[in-house]
Every structure is written in C-alpha cells, then in structure tokens.
Amino acid sequence: MIRVLLADDEAMVRAGVRAILGSSGETEVVAEAGDGREAVELVRAHRPDVALLDIRMPRLDGLAAAEEIVRTVPGTAVAMLTTFSERAYVARALGGGATGFLLKSGDPYELIAGVRAVAGGAAFLSPKVARYVIEGLGGSDGGGRLAREAEAHARVAVLSPREREVLGLVGAGLSNPEIAARLHLVEGTVKAYVSAVLDRLGVRNRVQAAIVAYEAGLVAG
Predict the structure, then answer these.
(1) Which keywords has UniProt assigned to this entry (predicted)?
(2) Would the pTM count as exceeding 0.85?
C-alpha cells in the first residue's frame, strides 16, 4: 500500500480526494492536515510515501510546506494538488523539490496515477502543467527557447550515450523499474545511472532532469 498524507484546508476536498485514492485499492491516506504547518508536522510523525499538498493553505502555504518536507523528510515524495496552474506556482513547486503537480480539475485516474508515479520515484505532471515544462517554464519567445535548447544540448553533451538514453526515459516519465525493463538492466544499475545523471546535470530531482531532456530533444513526441 502507498501511504499518503493529504493536506487541504477544505474538508470536503479532502473527503473527495480520499475517496478517489481509496478506490484504487493500493493507496491509504494515513493522515490529513488542514494547513501547511500541520502537514509538515504530520509528515515528520507518519513518514508517508507521498505528501499530497494543496497550494493555498493557512499558517504555511503548500509551496513552503513542500520545501520544508523535501529538506527535512527526504524519504517522502511531494506532489502538489491545486486548482492553480500559473507558471510561478509550477516553477516554485518543482524548483523546491516536488516531483508531482496535479490539478483538482483533472480526471480521477490522473490523481491515482500521479500518486503511484511519485511514490515509485518517478515524476508526474498533469497535461496542462506538462505543457509548461516542455516550454521550459519560461517565456514562449522563439529566441529564449533557442537559447534554452542550446544550453540543454551543451549540458547533456557531457553524458555518456547510456546516460542520455536513461535521461530520455526519465523525461518520458518512466520509473526506475520501467527503465530497467526497457533497457534490460537491473534496477540497481538504473538507480546508479539516474543518480549520476542528476549529479552531472546539476539538478535536484527527476522533474528538473525531465525539463533538460525535453529541451535537449531527448523525449520523443
């Protein structure tokens, strides 16, 4: 079972999300919080696999709570659940270490799949958020995009062919077991490759690596 902490200041929203996750048969909500400070405290107490956080909450907002959880409880993956998809929120959440960004308006399956993905060490972005990621979380001007693409190509040039292959699969949203199956490697080897890729790119997590992969043209489609 995937153990989840759910944080949202609206009890009705928490009830709905809890019901959706419970319907999957593979997820258990072990604690609920009504504000960001309580969320951090409950994560420290329960050590869930995933902390699912709303952005706008009293006492401590979800973005600040996410940063604190990533810093102090690294074994818990963080995903944001919100009605807000503005780029500033997306950029700060992913920059702060969140590996999932889900919209409350999304399909229930999207929520279940997102929690499953981040619990497994992969990244998951709602389709609307993924579009921002593909655009580099920056301006849409052609010159800016070309500059980011050139920088991304330079960054991946230091990777070995196998590391670039792994990076492309990380960018496609595959988990370590899925990458291992695709490349016919043992999972421990894949973990070592992913760790090396993150280190050589100078990024904090798989989502930031995925942005580089997209901009460098390593992700099909």
Answers:
(1) DNA-binding, Phosphoprotein, Transcription, Transcription regulation
(2) no
